[in-house]
User: Fold this.
Amino acid sequence: MDFLDKVYKKSDSIVFRKIADEFILVPIRQNVGDLESICTLNDVAARIWELIDGKRKVREIKDKIVEEFEVAPEEAEKDLMEYLQQLEGIEAIIEG
Amino acid sequence: MECPHIPSISYAQFSERLHKQVIAQRIPIQGSLELTFRCNLRCVHCYCNLPLNNRDVISKELKTGEIFNIFDQIAEAGCLWLLLTGGEPLVRKDFLEIYAYAKKKGFLISLFTNGTLITPKIADYLAESPPSEVEITLYGVTKETYEKVTGIPGSFKRCQKGIELLLARKIPLRLKTMAMTLNLNELSNIKEYAEDLGVKFRYDPELNPRLDHSKTPCNFRLSPEEVVKLDLADEKRVKEWREFCEKFLGPPQSNNLYLCGAGVSLFHIDPYGQLSVCMMSRYQNYDLQHGSFHKGWSNFFPQFIAQKPKSDYKCGQCGFIALCSQCPGWAWVENGDLETPVEYLCQITHLRAEAFNIKKL
Assistant:
C-alpha cells in the first residue's frame, strides 16, 4: 500500500500533554518510559499528532500541513514519513 | 527514548526550561497527593501516620472516583509531576486502580512507600507501567534498628523483600532515610547498602512535629551539631551546599512570607481532598470536595501566597534564609504561628554557615 494511503491511530501506550508552551509525549508502558530523556514536539509535530485520528489518510494529513505551514509538499511528505515511522517505532501510533 | 527526529532533549534541560515557563505563567506543574494518612507501620518520628484500620479515618478519605475526578482537573490545569504518598499509599485496596488512572492522565509519577506491602502483583504492574521513581524509606540495615523505628516486628524483612521485588524488575528505585537518634549509628551503612544495590540514596536529618502539632517526633532529632557533622563527613554534600550558597545566598528578594514555589508551581492535596500550597502549610486549605481545583488555584492561592509578615519577621531579613528549612508552614507546625523562627533550624543553619565558612551577604 502506498504510504500516503495509510491510516494511523494513536495507541494507548503514550499520552500527549500540552503544558505551558511545550508539547510533550508521556509514555505509559514499559520500555517507552525513560527519565533521562523526554519527547517534546515542535508546532508541526504537535499538529500532526492532533491530526492522527484513525480516519485521516497520511495524504490528508500532508495536505493539511502544507496548507497550514510554509513547507513544500515534497519536504512535508519526507518529514511526515520519517516522523510517523518514529512514532510507530515507539509504539505511539499503530496502523489501522 | 529512541526518537531522534522528534526533538528529544535531556530530562534536566527539559525540566529547567519548563520550570521557567510555568513560574512565569503560574502553572501547577508539580503536585503531591496523600492517598491516606493510614499506615501499617508506627514509625516514632512520623508527622502524619494514623492507625491502619481506623474506620472514621477511612470514611473521610477520598473515594476512588473522587480521586479520578481530581486527577482529571489537575491534568487539565497542567500538572506533569505527581507524587503519590501517604501515610502508606499501598494500604489502599484501590491503589493500583488509582495508579493506573494517574498513568493514563500522563503524569510523571513518583511513589513514596515504606516498601513493606509491595507484592509480586504490584511489582509486576509497576514494571509494566513504570513510575518515574519509587522511593522507599529504609530506617536501618539491621532488624533491630529498623524495627526500633517502625515498631512493627517483621517489617524489616518485608521492606527488604519489597526492595528485592522492585530491583528484580528494574523499576527505578531510590532509597532514603530520615536520620535520627535511633539510626544515626547505621546511617553510613544504609548509604553503603544502597550503593551496593546500585540505587540512588538520600537522607534528611530534619524531623518536623506532627501535623497536629505533637512534638513527639522532635524527641528523635539529632542535635544541630550532629546534623552539621554529617554534612561535613560527606564531600558531595559539602560541595552541593557550597554551590547552592554561591547561587542563592543573601536576603530574600521579596517581602512576602512565602519565598518558595508553594502555590506558584506547587500544590498538595491531603487524603480528604484539602488543597494546600505545599505539604507543610496546612493551616488554611481549600476543600476540593466542595469546589474545583481551578477555583482553589486561581482564586484562593494567589491571596494566600501574597501574605506579608504581620510582625517584625526575623527570618525575612536573614541572609542565610536560602540555607535554612525555615518556612511559614514549618513555623506553624512547630510554633503554632507562621513567623516565629524554628529555633532548631536556625541553629543548624548558623552552624552550617560557620562550618562552610559562609559569610552573610
Notes: The longest helix of chain A spans residues 73-89. The longest strand of chain A covers residues 14-19. DSSP finds three helices and five strands in chain A.
